[in-house]
Amino acid sequence: MYSLTLSHGQTSDLFKSVANPEEIKDDALLKNDIVSGYFKDFALKNGIQCLCAQFSPQKDFYLYKMPVASEFFTLSLHEISHSNYSLVMADRKYKTEVEPKSNSVLLLSSLEKSVFFASRNSNIKTLEISIPRDYLLSQLNIDCSYELLKYYMATKAKKKHIDFSDFSFKNKFLKITREANKEKLNMKFLEEKVNKLLAIYFSDIASHLYDFLEYEKIKISKDEINRLMAVKSHLENNISSPPPEFSSLTKIALMSSTSLKTKFRKMFGFTVFEYFQRLRMQKARILLLTHKYSVKQIGQQLGYTNLNNFTIAFKKEFNQLPHLLLK
Fold first, then answer.
1. Each residue of 240-283: pLDDT tens digit?
2. Residue 79: beta bridge partners?
3. Within its chain, how far is the Cα of 273 from the centroid?
4. I need a labelling partner for 149 at 20 to 30 A (CA). Which of 34, 72, 131, 165 fits?
5. Where in the sequence is the domain holding 123, given as residue range(s)?
6. Buried b (16+ CB within 10 A) or exposed e, 12-23
7. Cα(319)–Cα(312) distance, integer angstroms
8. Nearest to 48 by CA among 135, 130, 133
9. DSSP H or E stretch at residue 135
10. CA pair distance 6, 154, nearest whole angstrom
11. 86-90/95-98 β-pairing
12. Quick one: CA dihedral 188, 193, 199, 201, positive or negative?
């Protein structure tokens, strides 16, 4: 197991700490008992910093990124094969966990802690683009408050927006990483491709912010907050049962079906069913890791009469079949 704690913006220090002595400027070949591969970091206009790396950890690998005083944003792209991978973001207000997946596109704030993990012998291709706060907000081209952007990032981080399978987006990612592998960088080419990649991402997140603004118009009174919390508690106390009838939840909330759906989602960032399913799958994962129960027993404990439905739900949540946790 290898771990390193760095501040945001110092990712290249990780690679420099394990680089070979023949490191030249920003270019390093990596081959030792910790990691093998290469990395390069380079600066573009408007204060944008880029780190590109392709490597394979020789040990299970943790990287902790700690908050810094001044804020900037990092668009973090990872393409990972043969790996258990997770990223956790947390600050004082919100905590969002992004479960294992092979590809990810995430916008992170330097004010939040993040943890990166990859397993031994996984193959990782990564691109991190650090963007000054003012430049990012100007590129969004949307009349929204900074707090709205931060709240949106925290509550919507697990939702899939940009899809790595999107040809245009992935194509630019691959062109950038290939160019960074060359001995002499074509900075004009990199500038063009990074800017186009950012344009695609900014356009996507801006469209979602417009949608999110509609949710911000929804007002929730203090009394409604208490009733929504009662619905949340009811879901948490009944995760060993099938999903409750929605009509029973509207009676607890003393709201119409439409009001409950929109206000629950605004308050908790998930639909009622998404939240309930997430609770059940988290409970299932905890039970599996105890190695005391079979997959069938756990499915039954969580109210599943059909084991296949439980397996599908678990795979959807964690991108992993439940029986693999029993090994």
1. 888 899 999 999 999 999 999 988 987 887 889 999 998 899 88
2. 103, 125
3. 21
4. 165
5. 2-215
6. bebbeebbeeee
7. 10
8. 130
9. helix 133-140
10. 22
11. antiparallel
12. negative
Same domain, 178 and 236: no
Contact between 133 and 71 (Cβ < 8 Å): yes
* Global confidence as pTM: 0.60
Distance CA 12, CA 63 (A): 12
Query: Are both 205 and 83 inside the same structural domain?
Result: yes
The band of 175, judged by pLDDT with boundaries at 50, 70 and 90, is very high
Structure tokens, 12: 């290249």
Residue where a domain stops, chosen among 192, 215, 238: 215
Residues 265 and 191 in one domain: no
Domain total of the chain: 2
Residues for the chain: how many in total? 327
Q: What CATH code is carried by the domain that includes residue 301?
A: 1.10.10.60
| Domain termination site, one of 159, 180, 215 | 215
Q: Is the pLDDT of residue 99 over 60?
A: no
| Sheet with strand 123-132: strands edge to edge | 27-31, 35-43, 49-57, 123-132, 72-81, 103-109
| Together in a domain, 211 and 226 | no
Query: Is the distance from CB of 116 to CB of 70 less than 8 angstroms?
Result: no
